[in-house]
Design goal:
Layout (H helix, E strand, L loop, with lengths): L1 H21 L3 E3 L5 H29 L1 H6 L4 H16 L3 E3 L2 H18 L1
Helix pairs in contact: 1-2, 1-5, 2-4, 4-5
């Protein structure tokens, strides 16, 4: 259990880091030094990992018929919702607009598939 949560936190931190580097519209506050940026990446990964571990199974349970009807593509909507929540919960992280959130969601989904 602890191993799975830790892996989710690392994947989440790495996703947010890559998103800030490569996706326009995803960035951190500009007046932060390196230590504060690393701290925010780890906190964002922690929030993303906890939401992914506890909230995602509940959402998948309640939306199971929709997931079946869409052949699993509704999982992308669930991940989008979780990324959006992380954007709301971490005030130093800015994901501006629909497309940057969608691209971050796709990046998160692909990293999760490849790493797990």
């Amino acid at each position: 259990m602890f191993k799975k949560i830790l892996l989710n936190i690392l994947i989440g931190s790495f996703t947010i880091y890559l998103a800030t580097l490569f996706i326009p519209g995803v960035y951190l506050e500009t007046n932060l030094d390196l230590f504060e940026k690393i701290k925010i990446f780890l906190i964002a990964g922690l929030v993303l990992g906890i939401l992914n571990y506890f909230l995602k199974p509940l959402l998948k349970f309640f939306t199971f018929p929709i997931i079946i009807l869409t052949i699993g593509l509704f999982n992308l909507v669930i991940n989008f919702f979780i990324i959006w929540l992380v954007d709301i919960l971490i005030p130093q992280l800015y994901i501006i607009g629909f497309l940057p959130t969608l691209y971050t969601t796709i990046l998160f989904t692909l990293l999760t598939i490849f790493i797990k």
